[in-house]
Design brief:
The complex is a heterodimer of chains A (155) and B (1129).
Chain A lengths: L2 E6 L4 E6 L5 H17 L7 E4 L2 E8 L2 E7 L5 H19 L4 H6 L1 H11 E2 L2 E2 L4 H26 L3
Antiparallel strand pairs in A: 1-2, 1-5, 3-4, 4-5, 6-7
Helix pairs in contact in A: 4-5
Chain B lengths: L1 H13 L3 H10 L4 H17 L3 H17 L7 H8 L4 H14 L7 H12 L4 H14 L2 H14 L5 H17 L4 H11 L5 H17 L8 H10 L3 H14 L4 H17 L3 H14 L8 H4 L1 H5 L2 H13 L3 H17 L1 H5 L2 H7 L5 H14 L5 H14 L3 H20 L5 H11 L8 H14 L4 H13 L1 H5 L9 H12 L7 H8 L9 H23 L5 H18 L4 H22 L5 H6 L12 H4 L18 H16 L13 H17 L42 H30 L35 E9 L4 E8 L23 H9 L7 H21 L26 E2 L2 E5 L3 E10 L5 E10 L4 E9 L5 E3 L11 E2 L9 E10 L6 E12 L4 E12 L5 E2 L5 H9 L4 E6 L7 H12 L2 E6 L2 E8 L4 E7 L2 E6 L2 H16 L2
Antiparallel strand pairs in B: 1-2, 2-4, 3-5, 4-5, 5-6, 6-10, 7-9, 7-11, 8-10, 11-12, 13-16, 14-18, 15-16, 16-17, 17-18
Helix pairs in contact in B: 2-3, 3-4, 4-5, 4-6, 5-6, 6-8, 7-8, 7-9, 8-10, 9-10, 10-11, 10-12, 12-14, 13-14, 14-16, 15-16, 16-19, 16-20, 19-20, 20-23, 22-23, 23-25, 24-25, 26-27, 26-28, 26-39, 27-30, 28-30, 28-31, 30-32, 31-32, 32-33, 32-34, 33-34, 40-41, 43-44
The chains are: A alpha+beta (155), B alpha+beta (1129).
Keywords (chain B): Acetylation, Coiled coil, Cytoplasm, Golgi apparatus, Membrane, Phosphoprotein, Protein transport, Repeat, Transport
GO cellular component, one term (chain B): AP-3 adaptor complex
Subcellular location (chain B): Cytoplasm; Golgi apparatus membrane
Chain lengths: 155, 1129
């Protein structure tokens, strides 16, 4: 996978993950073009399109579009599966996830994605394992936060 | 210290955190940029504080802003600071920010190396994990080099969580720092058998990706993967493994056989569509495009898996209600279509259904498929269906796409599938009714092309075009339909050029001179005016015969009345032509008043047939010696001059149409003179293709039409052009015609059968109509555009012998990409004269009962067949002073059985000859030698006679009635610097011995003042190797062959050969047309077959070759030739 984008129906970018090194300018250009192309498609159309030399796989969940770019030889259906699995993970983590969850906790959305995919490849196919890893890391974070707060409390 | 922290957190309470920032941005929709710039100022303040918590918060906000598109590269150092925090909370944020914001040119990355190394070795697995994740996004070659070792150690970490990540990130490291691959590979391989399934799957992932880039290094892992494939139940892993095998199989054909069973099982059993899709895709698609040229063997995988199985599975996908599956099914189908058109064609109904889908991308995919699925039988049906779609399609883009597809489908491979051109013309006419299309231009060029190339259709086409011209107002009425008025260009030209077919030329002439015409784009008006003059000539001719001369004078008067309108045209082209013709008509009128007969002379103005020339014909004309096309004629303009030139260029751009060549405005005398000269030239020029089609000559690029003022008239009349036949009726007619034909054929067959043996044998049902059975209603004057450039000269080797210089062209069978082509003129002359064999075959094989039509049809097929043969290509080489013909087939199945060729070039002075020898597999005794004669001297060569001294074994086939020693006349003459090809057929009795044939070529060299008789001796050398054909053979078949005991044994020692074993094998393959059956270390078995079907088997070791063949003499000679090959290196 080359990159993954999440954007709203209004075309606002909600999350971006690039697995190929590109400069900011190029990233912006690609994002703009792709968001336009995908939003222009009618709801009943299939989830795949050919774009430049890449294949784009996208799917809409509520008001959010999840959009992945894969190479010519990659499997479209498994990419769709990846998107779906990521949505399930978000759903499990946030508890019926909505767009606002991702906006306000965008770093969490990234952490989940990073546990699920690494360098563009699926690293963990078990949902349970991904969530376990995230929870434990969060626990670690909260412990520290908690200690910090204890420190700060006396005042 | 404590106070500081406390103070920090108090500050923090007043700071915005990420949520506040997001909320703030949402509340400031109107002045977002301003709000964000204040936020960035705050963030800058926060970053200046010592408190790491504040900094982390700031960095977190920056990451968000970066996503919104703001530049945060200035904070790169602060990000590194946060990354280095010992607290996991901050480290996590720091790494996230880095992975989002850093790229290869971020210079602070250098500072992170030690920090990352520390994190990688942290006792906390989450610290390590976070560092690995971050690294996967911003790893640079430097980082990869410095950290490769650390990551490699992590691959054996105790926690699977870390192992998994480390394995995956290794792929990125390999990409950035390839040197790390070799030391890390053994460990990576170990991970394939890791107890943790996640780690295992990660290793499969990485190796699969690596193997896609360079499969041959991973062949040794095949057994391991095979085990994984049969044991794993994880679809993610299975998909990767199948992909990996897709890359490996072309390199190791035996894998294919092994895979068939598990793959078939998977295809049948899996419920996961993604896995099924991967299986089908890999088996049929990836294998078809192997990275190596040795494709003949690798194809066995898909050859042995029946395509029906996959196509049926794809059908299930396409029938699914899920749009995605439908789309992918069609996509995969279109890939299978390329190799197995038959198995896809049976699903035509399904594909046609997809045209009704509401998803445009699915419709477009289906359209793509249709292109490859048409045949003579179903073309009309498919196009009819498409025409229905054109009518109801919404959106011009899709409609235009449909239109171009219809034309593409019909016109593909020289209108191969069109049996009735009347039908096609009516389809084109119907397409002109399309609203708002941009492709008027395309339709017009099709009309022109068909009318010019299909002579039989001209009468019909002219009638249709006349109706179109008559109803021109329907086409031009609306501004939106501007694109379509291009067809009038074609219509006017066809009516003018072929005016002799017009039923009522007078009416058409009037239609062409209507005042409304002046509203058309300039270039179309110009064609109108010119062709009105042609029509005028035709009308005059018909009227002058009559006793009443007034009619003719009235016609002239009509011209004189109407033409002034065009003389006033703003368009230079129109104006110029109109005024020229106007004056001419006035003069004619004067003559008419004196009762002088002028029609003959007027029509002479436009006499002569316009013959199309192949688009590439110009390339065939050699550049005269001493002419350098790239050199400047003048001194190149200096810098300053070109600047001055600039404004002029702008002016010129505004009116590009005026620069069209004024080729029609030459007076009669000049015209005749030129025509005469051209005829002369054509007669002598072997490059002139007598009837090769091209529309380019007559149809020129239309200039832009947008800015031409046109009166806009609202159309309320229906857009159907009255009086035009509908294409549908042709479908019916054609159906009837075919039925009739079939009935007749059956009758004939019945008769035949009756005559032969009445009553005996079962009645055979002739079954469904096959492609070949359909004969076109119109005999089409289609000659293939041009011989394909089947071989490209890639290198020259010059070897000087005693008296002459021999040039050997090493030809490659692979058609080269444009970029690879050397700028060398090919030796293949334009349309080669029909070879004697072909003419002979065509007549001798034809049962006499067949109609001449069918005969011609068959011949056409033959031509096509020959093209295939030619494209197989060949190699050749020169050994010592002897020129050996060496044949190497390209090994493509299906082509193998065709014909082998070889080619040598003798560079004589003044004549060059190239000869090809084709052995014919179907007829093991016939060899076609095609010779290219190239005249390298400055004189004209004529009366060439080719003669060969026949041996007992090989004879030159001479026409009936000529004696055994008569030469064959070469059917052309050669002007200086020109080459052409002639073919000669030899009958060869036995192929077991090499042979040399002596021959002579006599010719007359004609100079300006003298002509001399010259003679040239040559030798044709047929080696035994040249009768061998590379034929792939499987090891089990090979073993059976050896066991059969029918083969005689022989062996030869290779002395003084010190080359690597694989070079040795390659040499035998290349020079002697063997294919490797199996290779074990420094021992290999090889196989080849002769054109008469002898099997030749070799067992090659480094110093000797053991061989078996059912013909000992042939074997002996082949071995001698092999030995000679090696004695020369």
């Amino acid at each position: 996978m080359q990159f993954m984008l999440l954007f709203s129906r209004q075309g606002k970018l909600r999350l971006q993950k690039w697995y190929v090194p590109l400069c900011d300018k190029e990233k912006k250009k690609i994002t703009r073009e792709l968001v336009q192309t995908v939003l222009a498609r009618k709801p009943k159309m299939c989830s795949f399109l050919e774009w430049r030399d890449l294949k784009i796989v996208y799917k809409r969940y509520a008001s959010l579009y999840f959009c992945c770019a894969i190479e010519d030889q990659d499997n479209e259906l498994i990419t769709l599966e990846i998107i779906h699995r990521y949505v399930e993970l978000l759903d499990k983590y946030f508890g019926s996830v909505c767009e606002l969850d991702i906006i306000f906790n965008f770093e969490k959305a990234y952490f989940i994605l990073d546990e699920f995919l690494l360098g563009g490849e699926a690293q963990e196919t078990s949902k349970k394992n991904v969530l376990k890893a995230i929870e434990q890391a969060d626990l670690l974070q909260e412990n520290i936060d908690f200690q910090m707060r204890l420190f700060a409390e006396p005042e | 210290m404590a106070l500081k922290i406390v103070k920090g957190s108090i500050d923090r309470m007043f700071d915005k955190n990420l949520q506040d920032l997001v909320r703030g941005i949402r509340n400031h929709k109107e002045d977002e940029a301003k709000y964000i710039s204040t936020c960035i100022d705050e963030i800058k303040q926060e970053l200046k504080q010592d408190n790491i918590a504040v900094k982390a918060n700031a960095v977190c906000k920056l990451t968000y802003l970066q996503m919104l598109g703001y530049d945060v590269s200035w904070a790169a150092f602060n990000i590194v600071e946060v990354m280095s925090s010992s607290k996991f909370t901050y480290k996590r944020i720091g790494y996230l920010a880095a992975s989002q914001c850093f790229h290869e040119s971020t210079d602070v990355i250098m500072l992170t190396t030690n920090q990352i190394r520390k994190d990688l070795s942290s006792p906390n697995q989450y610290d390590t994990g976070v560092a690995l994740t971050g690294l996967s996004c911003f790893v640079t070659p430097d980082l990869a080099r410095d950290l490769a070792n650390d990551i490699m150690t992590l691959m054996s970490h105790t926690k699977p969580y870390i192992r998994k990540k480390a394995v995956l990130i290794m792929y990125k490291v390999f990409l950035k720092y390839p040197e790390s691959l070799r030391p890390a590979f053994p460990r990576l391989k170990e991970k394939l058998e890791d107890p943790d399934p996640g780690v295992q799957s990660a290793a499969v992932n990485v190796i699969c990706e690596l193997a896609r880039r360079n499969p041959k290094n991973y062949l040794s892992l095949a057994p391991l993967f095979f085990k994984l494939m049969t044991s794993s139940t994880n679809n993610w892993v299975l998909i990767k493994i199948i992909k990996l095998f897709g890359a490996l199989t072309p390199l190791e054909p035996r894998l294919g056989k092994k895979l068939i069973e598990p793959l078939t099982n998977l295809i049948h059993s899996t419920s996961a569509m993604s896995l099924l899709y991967e299986c089908v895709n890999t088996v049929y698609i990836d294998v078809n495009t192997p990275p190596l040229p040795s494709l003949s063997l690798s194809l066995c995988l898909y050859l042995s898996l029946p395509p029906q199985l996959c196509v049926q599975k794809l059908r299930i996908l396409i029938e699914d209600s899920d749009q995605n599956l439908k789309y992918l099914g069609l996509l995969a189908m279109s890939k299978i279509l390329k190799t197995h058109p038959k198995s896809v064609q049976s699903h035509k109904d399904l594909i046609l259904q997809c045209l009704d889908d509401k998803d445009e991308s699915i419709r477009l995919r289906a359209l793509d498929l249709l292109y490859g699925m048409v045949s003579k039988k179903n073309l009309m049906e498919i196009v009819k269906k498409l025409m229905l779609h054109v009518d109801k399609a919404e959106g011009t883009t899709y409609r235009d796409e449909l239109l171009t597809k219809i034309i593409d489908i019909c016109s593909q491979s020289n209108y191969q599938y069109i049996t009735n051109f009347e039908w096609y013309i009516s389809i084109l006419v119907e397409l002109t009714r399309l609203e708002g299309t941009r492709h008027g231009h395309l339709i017009a060029s099709q009309m022109l092309d068909v009318a010019i190339r299909v002579k039989a259709i001209r009468g019909f086409a002219v009638a249709q075009m006349a109706t179109l011209l008559d109803n021109a107002h329907l086409l031009t009425g609306n501004m939106q339909r501007m694109g379509i008025c291009e067809v009038l260009y074609a219509a006017a030209w066809i009516c003018g050029e072929f005016s002799e077919h017009l039923e009522n030329p007078m009416q058409t002439l009037e239609a062409m001179l209507r005042p409304k015409v002046a509203t058309l784009p300039g270039h179309i008006q110009a064609v109108y005016v010119q062709n009105a003059a042609k029509l005028f000539a035709t009308v005059l001719k018909s009227q002058e015969g009559n006793t009443d001369s007034t009619a003719a004078q009235e016609t002239s008067q009509l011209m004189i009345d109407r033409l002034p309108l065009f003389v006033q045209s703003a368009n230079l082209e129109v104006q110029e032509r109109a005024s020229c013709i106007l004056q001419l008509v006035k003069y004619i009128q004067k003559l008419q008043q004196k009762d002088v007969e002028v029609a003959e002379e007027v029509s002479a103005l436009f006499a002569g047939e316009l013959n199309p020339v192949a688009p590439k014909a110009q390339k065939k004309v050699p550049v005269p010696e001493g002419l350098d096309l790239d050199s400047w004629i003048n001194e190149p303009p200096s810098e300053s001059e070109s600047e001055d030139e600039q404004p002029k260029a702008i002016f010129a751009k505004e009116e590009p149409k005026h620069s069209r060549p004024r080729r029609e405005e030459v007076d009669e005398k000049e015209l005749a003179k030129r025509r005469e000269a051209r005829k002369q030239e054509q007669a002598n020029n072997p490059f002139y293709i007598k009837a090769s089609p091209s529309s380019q000559k007559v149809y020129q690029e239309a200039p832009g039409v947008e800015h031409i003022p046109v009166v806009q008239i609202d159309l309320s009349v229906p857009l159907k052009v009255p009086g035009l036949p509908m294409s549908d009726q042709y479908v019916k007619l054609e159906e009837e015609r075919r039925q009739k034909e079939r009935a007749e054929k059956k009758k004939k067959e019945k008769k035949k059968r009756k005559e032969k043996r009445s009553g005996r044998g079962k009645k055979h049902d002739s079954g469904p109509e096959s492609e070949e059975d359909i004969t076109p209603a119109h005999q089409v004057d289609i000659v293939t555009e041009e011989m394909p450039e089947w071989s490209i000269i890639t290198s020259y080797i010059f070897i000087k012998t005693k008296s002459y210089c021999v040039t050997v062209h090493v030809c490659s069978s692979r058609p080269l990409a444009d970029s690879e082509k050397l700028p060398v003129r090919s030796h293949r002359a334009a349309e080669a004269p029909k070879s004697p064999t072909e003419d002979g075959d065509a007549t001798s094989q034809e049962p006499k009962k067949k109609s001449s039509k069918e005969k011609r049809e068959k011949k056409k097929d033959k031509d096509r067949d020959r093209k295939v043969r030619i494209s197989t290509g060949l190699f050749l080489c020169l050994l010592g002073n002897h020129s050996h013909l060496i044949l190497v087939s390209s090994g493509l199945p299906g082509i193998n059985k065709c014909i082998q060729k070889s080619k040598l070039v003798f560079c004589f002075l003044p004549l060059t000859k190239v000869y090809d020898i084709q052995g014919n597999l179907q007829d093991g005794s016939q060899v076609v030698v095609s010779v290219i004669f190239e005249n390298k001297c400055d004189s004209f060569l004529k009366s060439m006679e080719f003669n060969v001294l026949d041996s007992l074994n090989s004879k030159l086939q001479r026409p009936e009635g000529s004696g055994p020693h008569d030469g064959l006349t070469v059917p052309f003459q050669l002007p200086p610097g020109v080459s052409n090809e002639a073919r000669f057929v030899f009958t060869v009795q036995s192929i077991i011995m090499p042979q040399k044939l002596k021959g002579t070529l006599t010719f007359i060299v004609k100079n300006e003042d003298s002509s001399t008789h010259e003679k040239l001796d040559f030798k044709l050398h047929f080696t035994c190797t040249s009768y061998l054909i590379t034929t792939p053979c499987y090891s089990d078949a090979f073993a059976k062959l050896l066991e059969s005991g029918d083969l005689k044994c022989s062996s030869v020692r290779l002395e003084g050969v010190n080359m690597p074993f694989h070079h040795l094998l390659a040499r035998i393959c290349f020079h002697h047309h063997f294919s490797v059956v199996e290779r074990i270390d420094s021992c290999a078995s090889m196989y080849s077959r002769s054109i008469q079907g002898h099997h030749v088997c070799l067992l090659v070791k480094t110093v000797s070759i053991d061989a078996k063949c059912d013909e000992p003499t042939l074997l002996g000679n082949v071995l001698d030739e092999i030995k000679q090959t090696f004695s020369q290196c």
